[in-house]
Amino acid sequence: MNAIKLKTSSLLNQNCWALILLVFSINFAYAQKYKPRTKYYIGGGLEAYSSGNSHGALFSPYINLTAGRSSFNAGPVFQKRSMEINGGKLAFSYNLSGSKKNIAEEESEGDFVNTRPSILQLNFFGFTQYLHNSLLSLSASKIEEKAALENGINWNHTRLSTAEAGVGFELYVRITKRVSWKSYAGGAVYYHLNFQQGMYHERNCLSLLLGTGIHICPL
Fold first, then answer.
1. Under a CB-based contact definition with an 8 Å cutoff, are residues 150 and 97 in contact?
2. d(CA 24, CA 97)
3. d(CA 50, CA 42)
4. Predicted TM-score of the model (pTM)
5. Which CATH architecture has domain 41-216?
6. What are the C-alpha distances in Å from 189 to residues 1, 52, 162, 212?
7. Ranges of each domain in the chain
8. Distances (CA, A) of 203 to 142, 167, 218
9. What is the pLDDT of residues 148-182, one digit of tens each?
10. Which residues contact 115 (CB under 8 A, 6 or more apart)?
């Protein structure tokens, strides 16, 4: 009798687990069928920015890839002082404004999501960049000349390779349906790879990052 009860209990347990697996399988298949597909859109823009890395004003035309709330930028870096392309920049941003429900609904309808910013849009961003053999800015060169007159170094021709990374917040203001003006502020840390001994400026330091630019949404 006990053997029959154990066998019956075992069969019930097996059937129970089979039923649970079946329910989860159906739910998963349903969710996959009706889950909004993530769509990617390509845009672009141009930004001007500066930090305390001693290289002065920098410009970066970039290509933008947007998927949902997340965006990725990549582009070369152009230095104003040398009038040369000296490096590259990668950036990531995440849209902090708007409703997740609205984004999901728009995405399911195939509309552009986060590619046409609201009138005002707030993003969190992070970036990293590398500058290769870039001149010091004019103001940085003058500071070095005043601080170290006796070393005989021509700071106007001094070139440094610099790695930098930082985070901050950016605000988008929509100008037209496809064009937005953006401005951002944040903190960054830089490191001069080929630091000149005796410089007044530090080899690595925290600095303030400020920037502005024009963002173009996908056509």
1. no
2. 34
3. 26
4. 0.74
5. Beta Barrel (2.40)
6. 76, 9, 10, 19
7. 1-35, 41-216
8. 17, 20, 40
9. 766 778 888 999 999 999 999 999 999 998 899 99
10. 41, 43, 66, 217, 218
